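ARCHIVE CARD
Drawer: 12
Card no.: 0347
Subject: one protein chain, sequence and derived structure
Cross-reference: see card 0346
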Amino acid sequence: MILNAIQMVVHHAVLLHYGIRIAGLVTQGSSAVMGLLGLPVTAVVYAASVYALCEVYLGRRTTAKESLNATIGRWLRYVGIALWQGWSAVWVGLLVVVPGIVLVSIGGKAIGVGMVVVAGFMVFAGFVAGGVYGVIAYIRNSLAIPASVMEGTGVRASMRRSKTLATDTKGKIFVVLLIAFALYLVVGTIESPMLFFIARSPFKEHVMAQAAVLLIGFVGHTLVSPVALIGLTLVYFDQRVRIEAFDLVMMLGGVAAPEVAAWAPVEGTSGEAVEPMGSDGHV
């Protein structure tokens, strides 16, 4: 909320002195800076939320402060996972869309009308096909932070672990993310009257409307984000129970450390010791 308030003040000051075009460019640049500043915070909060839910799932008690202290030391790892997740969702689309946009911007006189049509098709196909692939890739990588928090794995190992655990549960993960997206749409719908009011006369102050937008966005994000975090973490545990009999490991072994529990032997139906899958996806 603080970052959004700073961005709004800067946008308004530039709008009054330099016009709406320069203000738009400044807003885009400040949004990029905000994303970079907010990424470590978002990654640590995500990891701390996963840690808290893991502790509850394992029958232990924790607080918000303890959860943050337990994860903040590995913030760089969680940022790396978040960047990998984001890049995996957009790289295919960018690979097709960016050349198409460049060709369209050159114009028909320079490259010919036929090439402009091809470029337009590239942009369209990039958005559609790239979007579909991006959703699938993000779903496959969405269990990486729970895996990293619970099993102490690094960035690359966490991504491989997520792909292993998400193999047979992509539909469930999609539903969790879809519910969170729908809730964010509800928040956006509540904000939309104020945004429309501000857009009608952008050169006026609109202090109360802007403050309402900030507050609604803050409260909505605070309430909706845990839905996705809790849902994905429960899917992670569900997959470990299905694939590795994680609940039996905890009942039989009673191992305190999650990374040790992931490797503890489980009694098979025939009485033999069965090794659960490790972080590399192999038995």
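Annotation on reverse: The mean pLDDT is 80. The radius of gyration is 23 Å.
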